[in-house]
Structure formats: C-alpha cells, structure tokens
Amino acid sequence: RLNAISAVNNATTTNKPLNFSEEKPTDLFGCNVFNDKVMQEHLPKAVYKSLKRTIENGEQMDPSIADAVAAAMKEWALSRGATHYTHVFYPLTGLTAEKHDSFLEPDGRGGAIAQFSGSTLIQGEPDASSFPNGGLRTTFEARGYTAWDLTNPAYLLENDNGIFLCIPTAFVSWTGEALDKKTPLLRSNQAVHTQASRLLKLLGHENFDRIQNFAGVEQEYFLVDRNFYFSRPDLYLAGRTLFGAKPAKGQEQDDHYFGTIPKRVLAFMIEAERELYKLGVPVKTRHNEVAPGQYEIAPMFEDSNLANDHNQMIMSVLKSVAKRYGMACLMHEKPFAGINGSGKHLNYSIGNGQFGSLFDPGETPHENAQFLLFCAAMIRAVHKHGSLLRSSVACASNDHRLGANEAPPAIMSIFLGDQLTDIFDQIKEGAEVTGKEKGILRVGVDTLPPIPMDAGDRNRTSPFAFTGNRFEFRAVGSSQSIAGAQLVLNTILSESLAYISDRLEKLVEDESVELNVAVTKIIQEIMKEHDNVVFNGDGYSEEWTIEAAKRGLANLRTTPEALPALNSPSSVAVFEEFGVLSNRELDSRVSIFFEQYINTLQTEVELAIKLARTSILPAAVRYQTELARNCLNMKELGLGCITGPLTKLTENLNGLESAANELESMLAKSHAGEQEHAHSLCNETLPVMTELREYADKLEEIVADDLWPLPTYQEMLFIK
Ligand code: ADP
Ligand code: MG
C-alpha cells in the first residue's frame, strides 16, 4: 500500500492537447466510421440508394446488395490498416462482446488473400455457448447467431494491437429468439413508431417521416489510480470496495462538484473525447460530479439504437483510455460506501425532424394540445407499469444506489413541475374547451398559462422528471446498458398511445364527438385515473415513502423484489401485444437476471471472507501482538499500560472472525430455486456482510497505519 502511494507520483499526465485548428472537427469527427459520406463514396449508386432506404425507412434489406456493401467495407477498412473484422453484440451480461476474424484467408495455392463476403457481413456465428440464455438454447445447439444491424454504421476500433472493423449486430438464437439487449430495442422502436404515427394521423397529420425515439445519456464514473486499484482485490474483482472506513473528509464540502478538473483527469478526458469523436460519438459535456473522484460525460442525444451503441463505446473507451493515464475507470453504481454513487441519466423523447420532440410544448395551440396528449400517454404508462419500469433497472449493484438519499427512490413517480401540473389539474377539473376554429386543435381554456416550461424548474430527487422537452429517467445504473430501460419506455408508451388512439377513434368516429372535445376528455380521464403518479416534492424524504404507499405506488427496494415484475402477467401482456418480447424470452431474461444477482452477491461474499481472513485479520493480529507485548513489558517494568486499544481491537477482531464464519456457513446452505436463493442473499447474507464490514472498518481506525494492507478511502479518493 505504501509503495502504491509513492508510485502515484510517477503517473503520466501529459497528452496531446486537442486543438480544433490543427485537428479540424470535420476531419476528426467520425473519421473511423463507415458513415453516410463514406458509403456514398465507396458504394455503387444503386446499392447506396437501396441501403439508404432500408436505413431510413426501416424497409427490408435487399440481400443482393450485401456483397457490394461488404466489398466496399473491406476495401475501406483495409486501406485504413484493419486486419480483422468483428461482429459486435450486446449479450444479456450487459457487456459488449466481440469475436475477431481475420480478413486473411488462404488462397489454396500457398498464398493468401483478403476475404469478406456479403454473407459474412450479414451473419456471424460466434461460439457463444457460454453467454447466458436462460434456457432458450440448450448447449448442444448452442449456436446463436449475430445479424448485421445495418441501421447503425460499422466503425474501426483502434488500439495498441491493431485496427479492427466492427460491425454492429443483433444476437439471436436459431429460432429467432432474442439473446441480447439490442433485438428487443429494435422491436420496440418499431412499436413506438407505429403507435405514435397512428395517433398523429388521428390528430390530422398526413405525410410525415418515421417517428424515432431518442436517448441522451449522461454517464457518471469514478477514476482511481491503478496502483491503488490493483492493491484492492474487491475493486478489481467486484467493482466496489467491500471495506473501507469513512475518510476524515468526504463530499460534505461540495468542493468537487463542477470544480476545476484535476490535470491528469483532464488529460484523460481529452484523450477519451478524441477517441470518441473519431468513432462519431457526439460528446458534448464533461465535468466533476458530486463525490470526490467522480466525473460525468454526456454526448448529445441520438436515435436510441445509436445512443445505445455509443454508450457502450463510451464505457469501453473510458476504461481503456484511463489505463493509459495510470487510472482505473469504475462504472460500478457504488464503488465507495458513504459517498454518492454513479448513475446514468437517460433523457427520453420521441419525435422526428419535422415535429421535433413530441414532448415539446410548442408554440401553437395545436402543438400544445398534441403535447399534452403525448405527455398524458407517458404519465399513464409510468403509472400503469411502474413496477415494470423499476424492474428494468434492477441489478445487484444498482440496489446500493436507488433509495440511498442521493439517487431517486425505488418508487416510480413523475415530476412535472408546478406549471404543467397546474395545467393538467385544470383539465382534470373540467376546464372548458374553446377556440373551435376549423382545423385547430386546442385543449383547455384560453386562460391557461402558456405552456413553455421554466428551465429552472428542476427537481433532482424524482426518478422520472419532465425537463422541458423530454423526460429524464434517473434510476438507470452507471454500469447498465440503456437498452433495457429504453425498450420498456418505448413499450409502455406504445401501449398508452394505442389506448388513446382507440379511445379517440371511438369518441370521434362512433360517438361523433368533436376532436378537440374528445382530446380534452381523454386527457381528463387519464389524469383522473393516473395522476397519483405525479409527485413534485422531495423524493428522498421519509414522508414520500409513506405517502406513496397511500397512493398505491409500489416500492420495490431490491432486485429480488423488483425482477418478478419483468414477467408478471401485465408485463407479458404488454410486451407480447407490441411484439417486443415473448413470454419465453421474458422468462429467460428474469432467470438470467436472478442468476446474475446471485453470482454477483456470491462473489462479493467469498471475496469479503477472503479479504477479512487473509488481509485484515493478519494486520490486526500483528498489531494486537505488538500491543500485548508492550503491555507485558510495561507491567514487567512496573509501569501501567494503555489497555484501551488492545481491548477494542480484540473485540472487533473477534467480531470479524465470527461474522466471517457465519458468512461461510451461509454460503454452504442449499436453496430451493434461484428466487429463494436471491432473497436469502439479499435479506440474510447482506446484513452479515455489513456487520463484517463494520468490524473491519473499526479495525482500520485502530490498527497502526503502516500495518494496514488496503489503500484507504482517503488515498483512493483524494490522491490524483
Ligand atoms: P443536465 O445535467 O442538466 O440534465 P446534460 O446537458 O448533462 O443536462 O444532459 C442532457 C442530455 O439530454 C444530453 O445528452 C442532451 O443531448 C439530452 N437531450 C436534450 N434534448 C433531448 C431530447 N429532446 N430528447 C432526448 N434527449 C435530449
Ligand atoms: Mg440530467
């Protein structure tokens, strides 16, 4: 540990500064991406046009163009120095998976040529038998295959070992069942497009482009010097510290938030941004976060499928660039107890170039009415499917964060702000519909305040907040893929939009109600039934927990409590109705997520026992011996000795030993199924781990500093 501290001094802090006059943004941005410009240059005209139609309108791809696209991609990649291609996919582990294949193939005459055909572009077959599948594939027919997702561009990944052509893919079983995070996201894109279009047509729009759904992802992370990182097996194996006494200085002084970025960190950020620009990731903001050692990076929002790939790239680029600067980038939701954890705010909206965001109030009465209707759809969706939404962010590491008074609670509610809440309240109470000019959609009385929101109207404690032209879902964990939450939002919103369209058709067509009246009536009905989910107060307060229970809102505090909502009957119904996930796919996901929860906790418990016994206990015993010997010597000399530290140390050492033994016997217990196992780990084992930690952390405060083996919180958080 002491060596680690002195080694920090030798860390690299220099880099090549980014300078837009030398590295022109147009040359830099997307220079490693097989983007529209490159495609137009490299593809035959007819092929380019056909591919564009597929990408932009979601039309089926013409298989005959695959060879031409593959040839162009190969030529481009080879000219840029690539040696391998890889189908990149997102298995249910939440990680990014890739398998590299060489372009080089023997020509049968002792030589070799570079090969890459249309069929290898379209379909890959990773030996993927060990990816989790939750029973969707038995091992003997373990072949899942990766299918080219041509809506996202291929790109070149550069690292110290070479350059690779990366092809974004979906990962499915031979029966077509989804084994990844991307496939259902793509299906949900289709659903929300269909349902939003249907409603827009009923509202009188005729020709418009595809309705997309967008994601703007704010990624938080911690940086720790690698010398410390590798002296902490809990950090590099479990991603979080299992021990560590509270430092004398924490985040109380708020001196880190938006403060000056430390030199080495800034060098790292600039390099990471340069890499991300090359990959076409539109990185926009960077700043210090609340906790010491914590930072945030956020790109501009994009189409969700692209934003999902880009977020995965951000996570891997941050990790790999941090290494070059002698640091480790931690994506875990709670690497350090007692200070803020990391989240991933997911800014969500739907719309397109013509409409902008459909959650944007707009300037005309027509746009406002439409906005209120889409907003009401979102409110209804979150109220009806709050538990499902909660389950989409459930994982062992996120449990440490949700509800920990720094992140939104596990109760799903919506923040609308006072102004918008007031408008909805007035409609709910039966505001009159006026302004019946032909063709103009209006809702509410003319006395309603103008809708554009005050941007300062912010609430940081709500899990789902309206922020002017989008909703910000703040419960996603920093290590999680955004796909899970995004596809749930798309699916439940689709269901509400479909409900509204049905209702509107019924009122207008069957009952001849005037459109304006019908729209107002529907908003009114929705708010009467669902405005319990709207909460503008302090989500961290104890009163809210009580109030939410009264309102009938679920509070699923832990992963084992939350996961069953993912395949509950109402969830299965909505997923199946909109063709996003089948019952079997959902069951497999729930089973995989439970398995992951169990594996995470078991690893942590084993590690905690091992560290307690082989690092902490020996250090404490050494010090105990020293103190005991000192006492004996002092007595021999006829002088009194200080017994306080020895007694305290011995008490905590005994506590540590017995907690470790108890944990060990808990690990050996057998369980009736994964759910029971998960609950037992959550409710019985975790509290004993906390107990073990308390003993260890007290020992840290007693044992002589030079004997303490693990880098401390203050060292990891403040030495940069
Ligand atoms: P803050 O920290 O104030 O919430 P940031 O600027 O860090 O804001 O992040 C806001 C994110 O929301 C960015 O990624 C931004 O591009 C994104 N965003 C802005 N407008 C929309 C929208 N209409 N839909 C989705 N995301 C959006
Ligand atoms: Mg935000």
Write the layout of secondary structure elements.
Layout: H1 2-8, H2 25-28, H3 36-42, H4 45-57, H5 66-79, E1 84-89, E2 97-102, E3 104-106, E4 112-114, H6 118-122, E5 123-124, E6 144-148, E7 155-159, E8 162-173, H7 182-202, E9 212-225, H8 226-229, H9 233-238, H10 263-278, E10 283-288, E11 294-299, E12 302-303, H11 304-324, E13 327-330, E14 344-352, E15 356-357, H12 365-384, H13 386-391, H14 396-399, E16 414-415, H15 418-428, E17 464-466, E18 471-473, H16 483-510, H17 515-530, H18 542-550, H19 559-562, H20 569-577, H21 583-636, H22 644-668, H23 674-702, H24 713-718
Parallel strand pairs: 1-8, 16-17
Antiparallel strand pairs: 1-2, 3-4, 5-6, 6-8, 7-8, 9-11, 9-12, 9-13, 9-14, 10-11, 14-15, 14-18, 17-18
This protein binds adenosine-5'-diphosphate and magnesium ion.
